[in-house]
Structure formats: C-alpha cells, structure tokens
Amino acid sequence: MTEQKEDDVCQPGELVTDNRFKRQWVKLKRNKAALAGGMLIIVYVLSAFFAPVIFPGNPSAPNLIKSLETPSVENLLGTDELGRSILGRIIYGSRISLLIAVGVVSVGMILGIPLGLVSGYYGGKIDFIIQRITDTMLAFPGFLLALALVAVLGVGLRNTVISIGISMVPLYIRLVRGCVLSVRAEDYVEAAKAVGTRDIAILIRHILPNVMVPITVQTSLSMGMAILFAAGLGFLGIGVQPPTPEWGAMLGSARSYLFNAPHVATFPGIAIFLAVLSFNLLGDGLRDALDPRFRI
Amino acid sequence: MNEQLKPLLEIKGLVTRFHTLDGVVKAVDGIDFEVYEGETLGLVGESGCGKSVTALSILQLLRCPPAEIMGRILFEGKNLLELDREGIRKIRGNDISMIFQEPMTSLNPVLKIGEQIAEAARTHKNMTRQEAWRWAVEMLRMVQIPGPNSRARQYPHSFSGGMRQRTMIGMSLSCNPRLILADEPTTALDVTIQAQIMSLLHRLKDEFNTAIVLITHDLGVIAEMASRVVVMYAGIVVEEAPVKEIFKDPRHPYTQGLLGSIPVIGRKRQTGRRLQEIPGIVPSPMETPSGCRFHPRCSKVMNRCCRQEPPMIRLNEHRRVSCWLEAHSTVKKSQAGGR
Amino acid sequence: MALLEVNNLKKYFPIKKGVFSRTLGQVRAVDGISFTLKRGETLGLVGESGCGKTTVGRSILRLIEPTAGQITFNNQNLLDLEREELRKVRASLQIIFQDPFSSLDPRMNVGQIIAEPIRNHLKISRKEIRERVAYLMERVGLHPEHISRYPHEFSGGQRQRIGIARALALNPLAIICDEPVSALDVSIQAQVINLLARLQEQMNLSYLFIAHDLSVVEHISDRVAVMYLGRIAELASDQELYQNPLHPYSRALLSAVPIPDPEIRRKKIVLQGDVPSPMDPPSGCSFHTRCPECKEICSQEEPILKDAGDGHWVSCHLW
What are residue B40's DSSP bridge partners? Predict the structure, then answer.
C-alpha cells in the first residue's frame, strides 16, 4: 500500500471532541506563532487605547532643540527631525493604524459580503455581472487600485479608509461567493427551501453563519494588509496627512535622514512589520484552528 | 471445521485506544479471534463497534490520532505489534492487504491505473518497470476489467465505482497475499455491481486460497460470503459462530435483534409492517455502559447484566457467546448433569 | 383522484464548457416518467445510483426546476405556480433527506430547526411554537427537553428523527422520503422505518419512498417503480413486482440482493458491465446493452410502458 492510502485511514480521528469551540481553542493554543501574533495585537490595541496614559503630552508638538536625537533614557526610541518622541508617535500611530484596519475591513465586509452572497446564491446573470466587475478590479494590483481611488477621492484619513476598503471588496466577494457555492449545495439549504423559507431568510439564517469562518480568517489577513496599504499611502504622502502620527508618513519623512539618523526610519518600520506579521500569523492560525479538516 | 489447522491470524486481547481532548476512547476493548487459512470470516457490527479499527490495528494504519494498540496480533505465529516500521511495511500489501470501502479516494487521481498497480507490485517484488506494467495489466484482466491493456493507461476518474473497486481488489491481490482485510468492500456500490464484486471475491478466494476478513454491517453479504461470523458490539466480541448457525440460532440478544431488524423480501406478509426494533442508540465509545455493554438496549436484561460484565462462554468448539443468559443455562445444564 | 400525479416528467441537465458556456450536450437525468400517488399510499422508487430517482424527488418539489412535464399535487399544477404560491404549497408536500448530517444546519438548535417551517407559514406566538415543537419532538420519539441542543449532539438516527419532525411540522399530505434510512445503522434503520409506518397510519400520509435498498422498499411500499437510466422500467404492486418481476432489469436487480439466509443459494443473474452514461444513453431500450434477453428490436425501438395486466406496468419488448 502506498503512503497516501495510509493517510486516508484517519476516520477514527473524528472521535475527537464534538465541542467545536473547545477543539478550535485547543488547536489555536497549540499554534505558538498564532498565539504570539494574537498577543502582539493585544499589545497594539492596549497601547492604542491607553496612549494618553502611556505617553502624556502631545505627540505632534515639535521640539526643535531635541531634533534627531538617538535613543536615550528620556526618549527610548529617539526623536525625529522635529524633535518629537518616536515612541510616542508610534503609540499614537497604532490608534490610526488600527482605526484604518477596522474601517477598511468594515467597508470591505459591508460591500463585499452581500454582493458575494447574492452572487453565489442566485447565480445566473447577476452573478455574471458581479463577477466581471470583480475580475476587472482584481486585474489591478490591490495597492494600485487604492492609489487610483485616492487620486480620485483625495487625501485624508476618511478617504484612505474608503479607498483601501473598496480595494478589499473584490477579495470578500470572491471568498464569500466561493463559500456560498459550497454551502448552497448542502441539504439543509434545500431543506429550508422545502419548508418554504424565503430566500432572504435562507441567506441570513442559514448561509451567512456557515460562511463566517473563512470571513473571520480573511478579516484578520485583510487587517494586516490594510495597515500595510495605509502605511504605503502615508509614505507616498497621499494618505493620512501630517502632523497626525501615522507610521507610513513617519517612514516617509524619515527617508531624508536615513544615513545620519537611521533609527528614525527603523522604529516605525518595525512597528509596521510587527503589526502586519501578527495579523497574518493570527489569520493563518485561525484558518488552521477553524478548519475541521486540520486535525490535531 | 478448522481445528486441525493452525490459525493464520490470531488476535489476542487486542485493545485499541485513542487519546483525545475529551478523554480516552476505547475503540476496541479486548477482543480475541482467529482467522484460518482460506476461510472467509465475517466481522459484523454497527458503526462505532470497532470493526474497522480492528482491521486498521492489524496493519497499524492508525497514525492520525495518537492510537495505542495493545495485546497480541499473531500472523503465522509472529506478533505484528512487535515489528518495527520496516517490518510492518513488508507485511502490508505483501502478506496482508486491505480493501477499503471508498474506491473513489483510495486511488491516486493523478497516476495512471497501471502505474498504481505496478508501483504496489514493485515495492514488494523485484520487478523491472516493464515486468511490473505487464503484471498490472494481468491483474486488471484477472479482476475482469474489459480491455485491460488500454484501461491500464487511463486515470481513475474514467473508471466507474465498480471498476475502481475491482482495481483496488486487483491491487490488493497483486502480491498474492495470504490474508485480505476487506472493510465494507461493497457498501458504496450498487446491488448489481455488488453482485459482480462478490462473485469476483468468491472466485479469487477459490483460486488463490486467500483468507478474507470481511467487515460489513450487511447481513445479506455475510450470509452469502462468510463461513464464520464474529459479531462485535461497542468494542468487544459478543458472539462467534459458523454462518449457518448464527442465522438459524442466534444466541446473543444483540445478534437476535440485528437479525430481526432487517427487512427481508417476502417476510412482510408473515410479520406485518413492524420490524423488530433494538431500542436506544449505539453507545458512544467514550462512555460504555457498565456491566454488559448491551444491557440498556437488551430486551432480556436481568439485574446481573447491569452490574457485571458477562464472561465469554464457549458453547462448543465453534461457538462462543458473551451473555449471562447462556451462563445461567450452561450452569443449569452442568448442574443437571452433575446430579 | 390521485393526490400526486406526475406526467411525463423530464429533467435534462445541460453540460456547459468553455468561456462562452457552450452547451455541449445534456444529461438526461429524468427522461419522461409518469406515476400517481394516492392518499395514504407508499410508492417505492428504486434504482441504482445515477438512475435519476433523487432528481425525480427534487423536481417534484421544484428544488430542481424540471425541464418538462406536469406535476399535479392536490389539484394544483406545481409547475405553473409562482414563487410565493409554491412556497405555500410546500407546507403540505415535504421531504426527508438521506444524510442526517448535512440536512440539518449545524448552527441551529433543534428547536430552531423544527420551528422553521412553522415560523414560515403560521403567525403564532413564541409560546405556541415552542409547544408545537415539543409535541412534534415527542411524536417522533425525541425528548422535548433536548430542544436547545445542537445537531452534533445527536446520533444519526436521532438526527433523522429531527428531520422527520421538521417535515411533519405543518401536517403535510405527502412526504418525499429520499433514502431516509440508507445512512443509518441496521438497528436504527428499523426504528426509523417503524416510525415512518406508524406516522403514516396516524396521519394518513402518502410517501414517495426513494431508495436503492430493495428489501427496505419492499417492506414499506404498497407499489414499487423500478427506474433505469431516467425511465421507469417496471411499476407494480410490491407483491407482484417482487414475486413476478417481468422486466429483465428488475429480475437481475432482485436476484442480486443478498438474502440474509445462508441456507438459501440462489442463482444470480450477474449483469455485465456498468450503467451507461445518461449523457449518451443507448438507442432503443436503454437496457439493451446489458440485457441477457436482448433481441434485435431492443436496440432499435424504444419500448413504452404498458399494462401487462392487473396494474403491472412494464416497459419491455418481451411483454
């Protein structure tokens, strides 16, 4: 017998606990990387929430005497060209980044989920139209799409969120549609139709709850992507505008001092890197934990 | 019938446990039985009774959840549980091979049928690529696949369910095994295809004198194929008997219930539309009932059954049953004999 | 007057391929079948996988839109109905599914599952719904105190009972039973068959009982139709069909059923080959490629379903 066949012989594994949440939690706990990602996200959220407590004072107020100082006890991560504490700006920046992340996935979900549901459930002409639009949007690299939208809408926090959010919509549509196609074929959806349930109720009561798992995973990954995109826009100077402390913008303005004060660029860079990494690690971990096919 | 023969496979005190998040699952909880050369042993029971796990334990194909296999599995006197990975690999497919229920997933979709059979043959025999291919075609011919030369070049998706199962049988026979473990080999197939597969197994058994352990819940298949029957319930053996006797005179209330609960064509006129029911549900292997495992569903339950596990009682050379009813009657008989 | 009358029902599935979804051909899943179902009667529909029996069941409920034909249920032609009217008719024409695992929404509890049809069709209070659900659960042999449990906490047989309770929720006239016991263990199968038989007596239900297991179908049905490649090969009362099968396919099918009695050794008619693809069914009689009694006419002319006497219908040139 070949190796592959031995893998088929896993049915008794089904015996492991029937309690879905317990199983998922244990699986997530065993995934150290996901756990680390989750912890880091909690740290970011806490620092965003308690920013004024951790860093009293205005992170945007210039103090030119202390311009471009290297890390010291007073300023743990040094100061930027206007003498502002980099640590303070990173802490306040996490507020902006998380706000953008949440805003972006909200836009993506609010538009993407209903379109995906309708597209997958009804099929036919409406599906064709939605899918061709999605194809067109996906033909652009996501960042380029966001960039183009900013060019149309203009700069600022709100427009950043909308632009990046819209660039996420096709991802949600694709994902939701795919899941709906498989759930729609389940007998319980047929059963609901057979007992005379209206389509809208079938979509909301039966289909949506059963596609939430991949949506959750996608949301975690999208948040990481949103932070990266926002930082990219900020870096190019067309995202959130100074003096608001935003990681990408910090990176952008630090560009000129890369040689004489490398720490000014390094720390915001690390902040972005870790935030994106944690969301991705958590997303991957969630995928493995929530997918019943991955057993422990 | 087989007492002068040495058993080909002896299972002694086999226990297979899985350690899961919710605790220990005793899928097989101490079973004994023998398989003799050239016979077909039917292993009957419902889902979760441990019949498939028994077969998988024999070949140690349980890797996924951490399984613990204890007891002794003697194949031609050699304890399979003491072999190392390489040792058991040599046994698999060579001396003992397995046929699975689902012929769709047991074949690799990206390899040609002929390549898959040839591969199985080459792992165990010293054959050149060409020899193995010819061997594969020969195997397909043997399991009555029409046009084996061209069929060997095709991929599994162009085979029907019945043809795939025949291919699997061909593959499992490719090294002339002494024993085949057939786990519900016809359950996924239609009746007419089932009839084809059954007659094929019959013929091959006669030709090669291979012993078969036929695992199924279908008593009709058992009646037609098996010479002896072992009935399992909740991880243990409850009854063992030659096939004719088990159908004519089942002793364990569970066996009686099983036989009564299947609809038989033409019997409706005599018995009416109600089938005999075994009440309740099959117990979960996490929480086996105390005493006799069948007592919560048994129609003849006595006080003793709830408290004490019944011993295995040997009725004669070929029959044994694990039930207090028999214990009482044998005791009475022996007492009567003593006076 | 029959409760359900199916007339020349057809369902062809187009096979599409390529960018422009060209239709390459059709799978004739159901190719013109007709039958009737009376009040309180059970009609068994047997056949091997791919013969179209499941498609028949779902087409009647219009879970799949039929290609052609008439379906008259309770004096209404179902194929003429608008969405909303159809939704209302479905209250009295119900279905039980084969797979007790996939037919219940894993995210709903038993109470919600059984209450769904009631909430869809009746305007009654929460308390009344709860009472009705509890009553239904009791009726199918479930403990009403398990009302807030989730499907995964039940065994296969119990889940099938939940599905039956859902189908009974609105006092239907007829239930399409699509392989309701084939996923169950032997001892549980008997419980569910008995439950279905009891409910039929109590509520005067009609069943269209679709299954591949000939013994189960014989046991529960009053009349039985044998399907092959989307058509009815033979239709007769259960006794007539099982004692005196006329169609060579029915004979082979019946002889292939393993009898749970080792003393009986029958001669089996082992059919050669596999069922042909419904995409490209054979000419003439669709069974002629495997028929042991094939004549010249069989490959040329399509036989029609005709009465061979006493309501024994058969579609074969031999009769």
Answer: B212
